[in-house]
Structure formats: structure tokens, C-alpha cells
Amino acid sequence: MDCPDAASLAEFYSKLLGWTITVRQPDWVLMRNPDGGTGFSFQSEPGYTPPRWPEDSIGQQKMLHVDFVVENLQQAVAHALTCGAVPAPQQFLEGVVVFFDPAGHPFCFFCDPEYLWNEDMEK
What we know:
Blueprint (H helix, E strand, L loop, with lengths): L1 E2 L2 H12 L3 E5 L2 E4 L8 E5 L21 E4 L3 H11 L2 E2 L8 E5 L5 E5 L6 H5 L2
Parallel strand pairs: 1-4, 5-8
Antiparallel strand pairs: 2-3, 3-4, 6-7, 7-8
């Protein structure tokens, strides 16, 4: 993830997810999911511009949007807020909460891994 400060964004996600940072360099940080699977790397970019969400034709387009399945949505939301996540002013789907990380990347929490995205989007 490009960001203005790799170390601080990595610390945010480490606290949010409970993952350990595995590699630290001055402008690049790596963390891996301790259960295996996908990890994250963060790279400091001096000219970083946060994405606009929802997207529009004028501003920086989002570079990624990560979805996290959580066991308890209410507890996960409270935890995200204490970690420094910012709720998006627009929430579109019931049972899904959209946040921004400190660099402005959007991410979502939801409980149901069988969530039928297309059905809700057609409403």
C-alpha cells in the first residue's frame, strides 16, 4: 500500500489485525498473516495523494479496497475506531461498515462470509 508513512500505516494495521510486522526498512514495511495467506506491504511515497471514495472522475481513484470478515461487527467497529480508523461518511450496505485507514484507503468489515453482494447492490 502506498502511503505517506509506511511505518505508521503498518502500525495501524498491526494493531487492527493483531499481526506482527516482519520486515522494517526506512520506507518499506512488510507484515504477514500469522495464519498464512495474504500479507501486506507498505511503501512511503512522498507525493502520495489519498483516494476519493466513493470514486469520482475528478480525484485520485482508489488503489485498493480490502474486505475483512469479522466475528462480531459491533466489537470490530469499536476496535477499529480505537485503532484510528475513520468511518466513511457514506455507508451503502446493511451489515457492512466502511472505514478509512490513516492514509485514506477504504476498507470494510462484515460478518457473513456468504454475504450476497449483488443482491444488496441491486436494491
